Structure formats: C-alpha cells, structure tokens
Amino acid sequence: ILKPSYVNDNGNRYYTDDDFVRLQQVLFLKYLGFSLDDIKQMTMRSGDEQYLAESLKMQLGLIEERIEQMELVKMSIQNAMQAVENSEEVSWSDMLELVNTNTLEQKIKKQYMNSSNISARIMLHKEYSHNTQGWFEWVYEQCEIKKGEKILELGCGSGALWSRNICRLPQVKIMLTDISSGMIKDVNKNLGSDKHFKYRVMDAHYIDADDGTYDEVVANHLLFYLEDLDKVLKEIKRVLKPGGRLVCSTYGREHMKEINELVRDFDNRIVLSADNLYDIFGKENGEKILKKRFAEVEWRQYEDYLTVDSADALVSYILSCHG
Predict the structure, then answer these.
(1) What are phi and psi of 201, to 5 degrees?
(2) Dist CA 129 CA 313 (whole Å)
(3) Which helix (H) or strand (E) holds 218?
(4) How far is CA 158 from the centre of its chain?
(5) Quick check: 199 and 176 in contact, CB under 8 A?
(6) How many CB atoms are located within 10 Å of the residue 177 CB?
(7) Is 303 left (phi over 0), alpha (psi -120 to 50) or beta?
(8) Long-range contacts of 301-305 (CB under 8 A, 24+ apart)
C-alpha cells in the first residue's frame, strides 16, 4: 500500500513527508481492524496540511464511533449481568445486535469512504478554481436571508453552507435535516451549540413540519438524488409560507465535461456516473420541473472554471465519482 516516492538505480527506496501522512492513515485503519484490501480503498490522497487535517478529522470521528459503540456494548453487558443476578431473563437478541462487529465495520467503512469522496471533490475545486468567492459563499448570497426568518435545509450534509458563512448570519432560526443520522451527528459536532441551528433526521419526502412554517427551504445539490421529486416539491411548497422561496442547486450537461473526455480517451470502460443526474433535475430541465409547483422560477449561474495541473488531484476526483 505504501509505495516509495522514488527508487534509485541501486533499488534504494525514498519516502517523503506525504508518504508518512499516508503511513499514518494506514496504521490507524489497521489498528481499527480493517483488512489491507479495505485500506487500499479507504486511504485518502496525501498532500498538503489541508488533506492531513481532513484525514485526522475523519479518524477522530471513527474513534468516537468506536467509543460510542463500545459504551453501548458495555451497558448491555452490565444489564445482562444484573438480570442474571436478579434471576431475570436476558435479552440475548439485543446483545447479539450490539456486538455484531461486522455491521459496525460496514457502517464505519461507508462513512469514511463517503467523507473521503466528498473531500476529494471539494478539494479539487478549492485548489484549482479561478472564482475566488467559493461555491458555499455564493449560494449563501442567493438565499438572501433576512432577520427573523425561519429556514429549513434538506440534505444538509456536513453543514458547510453554514459553517462557511456563520459570521454573516442575522438573527434567524435554521432547521438542518438529513436522511443520514451520521450526517446529522457530524453537522451537530461541526456547528456545536450555535443558537441559530436545530437538527433533525428527516426524509425529504415526508417533511415533519406544519403547513406554512418556513420562509425559505434550501436544497443544495439534493433534488436529483430523490426517488419522487414531485412529491418532495409538493412537500416543500406545503411547508413554505405564502411568498416563501426555495433555493436549490444543480448543474448542466456541460459540467466538468473535460474530465469525462479525458477518462473516455484513457479507457472507454470507465463510467464516472451510473446516472446522468442532470437528466433527473438539471440546468436544462429544472425550470420546467419547478414550474409545476412554483409560479416564479429563476436560474442564477455560478461562473467558474478550473485549471488543473496535477494528475494526482484529477485521479482522486475520478475515483470519488459514483460510477
């Protein structure tokens, strides 16, 4: 797994600081009990301090997951001991569920790999974009948030939209939701006990809110993932106040097209995405879809382009894709 950066004519192997970042990742995952095959898939691209910080943050999250799981197992064992001492029946099914380490391994592995994938995509744009404003800062401006408003975000992910703009927030109430309990746990950690936010695990198809609750609903790169988009839009319209607004984002057919061309030229068996998400909800068809539920629809374009001079960064992006 740990290949040297340079091998001289005599066969001597030389390692750099970046190689030792990767070694630190490999040894950590080995310590957690992952196989070498698993580790090959899970290690992040090594690089600058930002990558190391992201890696350490994810490793800390994995340790916290382990501690939480072990605390549950400990409590279950203590309850079983007490039941035996009191001649009561022990719930062996609950015990077996808790100590099912295979399920835990899969959960942690999936979380780590998803986080690595998201990081690879964000970092490519962060390092090589020409628009210095940044995506999350631009999206925040499109929200046009006013003091006293109530806002719902569907599919909040890591909460980057808010952590990047927290100093700009007026006095508002924001409900952050995601279908993943792991994501909600992470965003809660990232934003802490900031008074602006509340958190809830929620399926966008069934929004847990009364009619006319929110001034604004945010769906950042979410709508093209949904099973029943029209049902979700109906739910969004229901929970919005009269005159309320939906801010959603997507991309079009031309997005990152050069990477697709490079990959096809290299090996036409590689498919970056199993589905063309822009065909589900994209720049070309988004207005038509939204007008079924909303009277006024406006497209605003984020202008940017990338100049990538690192093959390593490009490969990491390609490997992070869904195909």
Answers:
(1) -75, 125
(2) 13
(3) strand 214-219
(4) 6
(5) yes
(6) 22
(7) beta
(8) 302/131, 302/135, 302/138, 302/139, 303/131, 304/125, 304/129, 304/130, 304/131, 304/135, 305/129, 305/130, 305/131
User: Which sign, positive or negative, has the C-alpha torsion 22, 65, 104, 183?
Assistant: negative
Q: Which two tokens stand for residue 315?
A: 């490969």
Bridge-partner residues for 6, per DSSP? Answer: 14
Q: From 178, 173, 144, 146, select the one nearest 160 (Cα to Cα).
A: 178
Residues 2-29, mean pLDDT to the nearest whole number: 83
Instruction: Identify the helix (H) or strand (E) that includes residue 104.
Output: helix 101-128
Residue 150: closest CA among 133, 172, 122? 172
Beta-sheet strands, E only, within 29-103: none
* 176, β-bridge pairs: 153, 199
CA distance 126 to 48: 13
- The whole-number average pLDDT for the span 89-95 is 74
Which amino acid is residue 39, in one-letter code?
I
pLDDT digits (tens, 9 = 90+) for 140-192: 999 999 999 999 999 998 888 999 999 999 999 999 999 887 788 878 888 87
User: What is the rounded CA–CA span in Å between residue 102 and residue 265?
Assistant: 40
Judged by average pLDDT, the poorest of 117-121, 212-216, 264-268 is 117-121
Separation of alpha carbons 3 and 298, rounded Å: 50
Phi-psi region of 245 (alpha: psi -120 to 50; beta: other; left: phi over 0): beta
Q: With contact defined as beta carbons under 8 Å apart, do 42 and 109 qualify?
A: yes
Gap between the Cα atoms of 273 and 260, Å rounded: 10
CA distance 105 to 57: 18
For residues 245 and 243, what is the distance between their CA atoms, to the nearest angstrom? Answer: 7
For the chain, give the number of residues. 323
Q: What is the pLDDT of residue 113?
A: 52
Sheet containing strand 240-248, edge to edge, reads: 197-201, 173-178, 150-153, 214-219, 240-248
Two tokens, residue 101: 């380490």
Over the range 104-121, which residues count as b (16 or more CB within 10 Å of their CB) and which as e? Answer: beeebbebbbbbbbebbe
